[in-house]
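Q: What would this chain look like folded?
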Amino acid sequence: MPHPRPRPAAAALLGLAALPAQLPAQPAESAPVVVTATRTPVSADEATASVTVIEREAIEASQARDLLELLRLEAGLDLARNGGPGQTTSVFLRGTNSNHVLVLIDGVRAASATTGGFAWAHLDLAQVERIEIVRGPRASLWGSDAIGGVIQIFTRRPRGPDGRLLAGSYGTRRAEAGIALGERARLGVQASVERVGGFSAQNPAGFSYDPDDDGYRNRSATLSLTVPLGADQRLDARLWRADARTEFDKGVSDSVNRTLSVTVEGPVSERWAHGLRIGAARDLLVTRGSSQIETRRTTVDWQHDLDLTAGLLTLGLSWYRDEAYNRSLAGGGMVFDRTIRNGAVFVQWQTGRGPLSADLALRTDDHSAFGRHTTGSVALGWTADPRLHAYASFGTAFRAPTLNELYHPGFSGFYAGNPDLDPERSRTAETGLRVRAGAHRLALSVHRTDVRDLIAYQGTAYQATNVKKARIEGIEAEWDAAFQAWRARLTLTLQRPRDLDTGKDLLRRPRRKGALVLERRLARGAARVELLAVGRRKDYGAELPGYALVNAAARLPLGRGLLLEVRAENLTDRDYALAYGYNTPGRSAYLSVRYRPETGGGR
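A: My prediction, written as structure tokens:
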């Protein structure tokens, strides 16, 4: 069977910003469409990269309370959290550092410009429509930070009225509501509020242990608007905002996180389409009695897709500006107030002939602090049979130093930034295979990443310097199957993330991890069981033992659009750690009632 040519440019780009709302429901045996891998729609089965798509239906079926519970089941993803809900959460993709994953919210870069980390703890799943995980370097398309890969989150677009009330362990209470209005011009609003009494973030091994409960509060909302502009163009706007308060041992912090994406897109001619996106991101963190840190980011991306005889040519311009300040509330002075800019141009060529396909991409970034940097990637695909797809790829990536790493004056001269830093750089090679037979799907990938010029704080004053090197080698496997009323999903990760200077494993990343999810459709409703096993990991001054968790969930339609949901976590009450000195929840249970009249009681 000949490899399908890339779709015409006008059809490829039209709907990118609102893709989750436009995609039809996928049959169980078909592959979802992903846009993050190539910036254009492509079948997940034909992508020349390891990709995972988590749809809204899967999010609701899992009843996961937060992103940590959802993402920890995926291959190649490891997580650490400093306590319970709302506490600092780190995501490691393919064994790379937590700031080596590029996080996009509706196409907008969302990580903090000061720390380089994203506020995973405050992104409420009630505001998430779809998640696309692309493993491996994507700097040639998306720029800095995409060393381990890209995680793009599309915010909610309600299809009608819905709501949910939940109560459970640790004093958890939450309410969600959404509504959609209009036909051609469509407005959607989704809001949620959550309060958690919590538990002590640290235990006696922690550096500032306080045995009181550390609570959490989160108020979140998303707004979406789609307006046709004439016959061919369309305006799409999305806003996400989270307002959170987090208690931690001997302290309280208040935070505001927000992203805004405004896109005008559509076909210019039969073989030419464009998309112009203007974005903004803001994160504000106020730690009482300590500091006030705020970053503001403005982004502009203009992408053009040209459907040529020999393939699909993508050309684009990208620009962003980061402004950040750090003010000491204890001393009353400004720690730093800085601005950086980055401009880029990128090109991608997707082509295919017979069973073979090829993707080539090149990007040049010009950063105001470290200068010009060029990244590239090449990938080859082979699809001799629609049930079998193989690929091989090689790509380079980089991470620009954060504002803290460049300009922070440190603490009494220690742990200061360094304006002469170079970006961290990486090279990754990968081969992969996907097999689909009816309702069964198997995906296997083998990869190796070498990172150099890693930034570390060392020397007599522990100043930021480019000194370290790392190598991550790994194998990932995914198996999905459906048989009669059962569905099963198994993910396995084998990896060796090493610091080449010391020969030791990188911190908080296990060498082995596996997860199994079993789902069963019942006469009324559905039930599922999750099994997660994680190997031991190194941490600061300690080794964290491996652990296994068992979670379960069930759904029962009550009629008239009501659905009863129950989820139980850590059924065996396992005592485990995601970070040394920090607690994790024990056995817990959550009960909720969901309302969605168009479903007739559930999906």
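The first strand starts at residue 33 and ends at 34.
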